[in-house]
Amino acid sequence: MHANSNSAAAAKPQLVSRARSLYATRRPWSLLLDVSSLSLPYSYAEATSRIRHNLNYFRVNYALIALIILFCGLVYHPLSMIVFLVVFLAWLWLYLCREDPVIALGRVVDDRVVLVALAVVTVVALALTHVGFNVLVALIVALVVCAAHAALRGTEDLFLDESDAAEGGLLSVVR
């Protein structure tokens, strides 16, 4: 019993640390929702550049927005809501709150792979609870909302550090 209480005590600081990590990796909501930074892009190329930059910069915020939209689409489906909450905990543990990289079969798994895997697991788990149409509509709404914001949000005041820029493919490998 003493070992269980030690592991429970160790888990609490780890959870607090992960929550702080989540808070640190997401961008301020005031920056995301700054109306003065919204403008129409001049061209398709600028729109895609903005989308790429903003999706990388605000990725945690956009993931939270998508999860909230998906949650709202399941309000009248209690079993799906329970499944969603379990999957949401997986999102928190594997993508939003972790500090160390995910390691599978002795290899480090890239964040984008974790993101895609969690998205697929979310859709499959909820589709198995027979709310496929609700999930599809909620995901389409989330995609449209996030993509529209990313295209309209100017990137002039958003600065990535070197590691974020390299992850987003913004740095050249040629020096």
Could you explain the architecture of this structure?
This protein has 175 residues and is mostly helical. The chain has eight helices and two strands; from the N terminus they run αααααββααα. A two-stranded antiparallel ribbon has the order 1-2. β1 (102-104) and β2 form a beta hairpin. α4 runs antiparallel to α7 and α5 (78-96) runs antiparallel to α6. The model is unreliable at 1-9 and 169-175 (pLDDT under 50). Keywords: Membrane, Transmembrane, Transmembrane helix, Transport. The chain crosses the membrane at residues 60-93, 113-146. Pfam families: PRA1. It is found in: Membrane.
Order of helices and strands: HHHHHEEHHH
* Percent in strands: under 5%
Biggest sheet: strands side by side, in what order? 1-2
- Mean pLDDT metric: 76
Shape: globular
If helices are DSSP runs of H or I spanning 4 or more residues, what is the number of helices?
8
Salient structural properties:
globular; transmembrane helix; disordered N terminus; mainly alpha; 2 strands; 175 residues; 3% strand; membrane; 68% helix
